[in-house]
Amino acid sequence: MRALVCGCGNPFRTDDGVGHLLAPAAAEMIVSLGGEAEVRLEHQLLPEMAEEFGQYDLLVFADARVPGTGSGKGYDIREISPDPAFEGLNIHSVGPEWILALAARIGGKVPRSVLVSVEGESFDFGEGLTAECNERMNSALAAFEEWMRAGKSK
Amino acid sequence: MENTKKNTIVVNPVTRIEGHGKITVDLTDDGAVDRARFHVTQYRGFEIFSKGRDFREMPVITPRICGICPVSHHLASAKACDAILGVTITPTAAKLREVMHMGQFIQSHALSFFHLSSPDLLFGFDADPAIRNVAGLAQEYPDLAMAGIGMRKYGQEIIKTLGGKKIHPWHSIPGGVNRSLRPEERDGMLAALPKLKEDLRKALDLVKNYLAENAELAARFATIETSYLGLVKDGNLELYDGRIRLKSPRGRITDEFDDSEYCTHIGEHVEEWSYLKFPFYRPLGFPQGSYRVGPLGRINACDDISTPEASAELAAFRKSTDDGMVHYTLYYHYARLIEILYSMERLEELLNDPDVLGSDLRITGNVTNREGIGVVEAPRGTLIHHYMVDDKGAIERVNLIVATGHNNYAMNRGVEQVARDYITGPDVKEGALNRMEHVIRCYDPCLSCSTHAVGKMPLKLEVRNSRGDVVRTVIKE
After folding, report:
1. How far does Cα A15 stand from its chain's mean position?
2. Averaged over B202-229, what is the pLDDT?
3. CA angle at residue A65 from A60 to A67, to 5 degrees?
4. What is the spatial distance between Cα B263 and Cα B242, in angstroms, rounded to a whole number?
5. Is A50's Cβ below 8 Å from some Cβ in B?
């Protein structure tokens, strides 16, 4: 099983950088479970990523989430599908579902995809995570490991 | 905002450009357009907070101005630093810088044309915004979308190969570069070019057909007769290192000067309603001395292009008008594609040059000059970095004239002209709004370069009556 783990966000805006820490850890976990994993760290998702998705069996997107918008656990893990609905005004604000839709539209294969999102506490200028977000990230990683072990990625 | 005895329409922010701006249209009491302006409403501040930093840090600091054209800032900054050191960099270093520069031109111009502008041309200005974007393009024109994606990816990979990252790379340093190019990397770059050129040819055909089929629109749409400014080398189009040339609307060479002399030739006018300055040619004053830069500016300013295919395309381009000077704003797209073609051909030349695999990368030195000026052509136009340092190299003063700024006057004039053509009264249709936005998209401004953009705003349209009361608000989420 070959996975692409893409961490998105701005590591200079405190918890917005959680994807950049979560992605390598999630990739390491995938490898420890016998898979192959490639890590991509980006500020934002870009259209040209869509062309590459077909090479993988699993796509994992790791990103920050605005407080109060999730399930209440402080993190969310959900499988995602292509959705062409354009979020926001421009490609600065597209989500993984939109990039998946683009991949499908240009004739690419869209592998199983999962979004792991962690609620941030602060998005102010600064490097490193707040203690709260760090704790949520660790919970998210544990839950992601469980998700992987349960064979949901197969 | 000034609003006396007029209705005002506000489009805020303009979409599908990099960064955020706002358009206001002032209407007279009878609904005609009195005035239209393109505002840049955020402040950036790089010139201020760079003070006190060691000049050697500037090639790393200034690329943060922009995520689309960081390479341009990186190179202009490095050239200004070379001037402070008083060194001429090695041929290998110069050519490697240019390789990265060509990569950026390909990816940035591809983003502008394929992702941001072509949906307007292919679906029409009045099409539903939900499909008039890159996703709609992928649905209806998958090959074109793929071509754009391929060029973006190719350019970004070149930047990453040399600079470690696709955005905010670190390759140029004062006195040279910090990394050589490996033969296998060079071979990979060369191998991909034929397919990309083929894709570009299709895009060129598409835009030429569009302009031919819409000749009347193209001749009128935001057309403005201006002077044109761009770098040239021996009269040819130049993107990395040349002399600055200004050509008059009728094609006469008004002036040509070394980049180090820009201060005596280029002034900056300020308006209270925008953070973006208005550069102008000093001898003519403002606004008479306004000019245009970027693809159309460069294509009009040069005599020819040094690479064969782009040169042939330039000859065809110039047949669009009797005297060969093309003032049609929609032709920015055509000029942009010619520049991608040039960048690909130039890249081929550079990659086949043995110097590009050399290992003599850097000339070391200390502060020799207290002042350094670096000028490159950024995708959006002529970019000027000007630093003054103390004897230890700490920055005392910075002046940045960014590409988008040069086109500020023309963008305003163009927006006003389109507003007059398409707006009567406060009930402004989506198509009219998008046409005004498209004027700005032609220039492909990178407003984050010129100012500062944080966060995301909804597209807001406000209509005010003559007393200044808002009588209608439309928000596009």
Report:
1. 14
2. 93
3. 155
4. 16
5. yes
Considering A42-56, B25-39, B75-89, B206-220, the range whose residues carry the highest mean pLDDT is B75-89
Straight-line distance from the first to the last Cα atom of chain A, in angstroms, rounded to the nearest whole number? 8
* Yes or no, beta carbons of B153 and A51 under 8 Å apart: yes
Cβ distance A91 to B115 less than 8 Å, yes or no, reads: yes
Give the residue among B372, B175, B173 at the shortest CA–CA distance from B260.
B372
Tokens found for residue B446: 């990178």
Nearest CA to CA, how far is B461 from chain A (Å)? Answer: 14
Hey, are the CB atoms on A43 and B146 less than 8 Å from each other?
A: no
From chain A, the residues in CB contact with B461 under 8 A are none
Q: What is the pLDDT of residues B224-244, one digit of tens each?
A: 999 999 999 999 999 999 999
Q: What is the pLDDT of residues A91-142, one digit of tens each?
A: 666 789 989 998 998 877 899 999 999 999 999 989 999 999 999 999 999 9
Contact flag B167-A43 (C-beta cutoff 8 Å): yes
Chain A residues near residue B135 by CB distance under 8 angstroms? 84, 86, 98, 101-102, 105
CB contact under 8 A, B146 and A84: no
pTM of the entire structure? 0.87
Cβ atoms B393, B56 nearer than 8 A = yes
Q: What percent of chain B has pLDDT over 90?
A: 61
Q: Which residues of B touch A43 (CB under 8 A)?
A: 67, 167
pLDDT band at B40; cut points 50, 70, 90: low
Closest CB to A84: pick one of B135, B145, B458: B135
> Can you tell me the distance from the alpha carbon of B196 to that of B168, in angstroms, rounded to the nearest whole number?
24
- Chain A neighbors of B457, CB-CB under 8 A: 89
Angle at B248 between CA B301 and CA B315, to 5 degrees: 40
> Residue by residue, what is the 3-state secondary structure of chain B?
CCCCCCEEEEEECCCCCECCCEEEEEECCCCCEEEEEEECCCCCCHHHHCCCCEHHHHHHHHHHHCCCCHHHHHHHHHHHHHHHHCCCCCHHHHHHHHHHHHHHHHHHHHHHHHHHHHHHHHHCCCCCCCCCCHHHHHHHCHHHHHHHHHHHHHHHHHHHHHHCCCCCCCCEECCEECCCCCHHHHHHHHHHHHHHHHHHHHHHHHHHHHHHHCHHHHHHCCCCCCEEEEEEECCEECCCCCEEEEECCCCCEEEEECHHHHHHHEEEECCCCCCCCEEEEHHHCCCCCCEECHHHHHHHHCCECCCHHHHHHHHHHHCCCCCCCCCCCCHHHHHHHHHHHHHHHHHHHHHCCHHHHCCCCECCCCCCCCEEEEEEEECCEEEEEEEEECCCCEEEEEEEECHHHHCHHHHHHHHHHHHHHHCCCCCCCHHHHHHHHHHHHHHCCEHHHHCCCCCCCCEEEEEECCCCCEEEEEEEC
CB pairs under 8 A between A and B: 58
* A128 reaches B (C-beta below 8 A): no
Where helices occur in A68-120 by DSSP H, the ranges are: 96-105
